[in-house]
Amino acid sequence: MLRKPETLFVLGYMLLPLLALLSAIVGLTMILGGNKIAGIIVLVVVTQVFAFGAFFALRARKTALLEEPDRQ
User: Fold this and answer.
1) Given Cys at both, which of 18, 39, 55, 56 links 31, Cβ 3.0 to 4.6 Å?
2) How far apart are CA 43 and CA 64, in angstroms?
3) Per-residue pLDDT tens for 33-65?
4) Would the CA dihedral through 7, 9, 12, 18 be positive or negative?
5) Which residues have CB under 8 Å from 38's CB, separation 6+?
6) 34 φ/ψ sector (left φ>0, alpha ψ -120 to 50, else beta)
7) How far is CA 31 from CA 20, 27, 49, 62, in A?
């Protein structure tokens, strides 16, 4: 299922960037609310995991699209 270009498109262009944006908002809200350590952890770790996950999904989608003519 994670080899399909359609699934990787949704992950790389829609879902993971949206989750990265939401976690960045949560991290900034935590920092401004006074919970600085947890907010920095959310900003640095969680947001970057979602951002790098989106790049990985896009790279895997490109590979899947290049291999697709061989399947038919």
Assistant:
1) 39
2) 31
3) 999 999 999 999 999 999 999 999 999 999 988
4) negative
5) 30
6) left
7) 16, 6, 19, 37
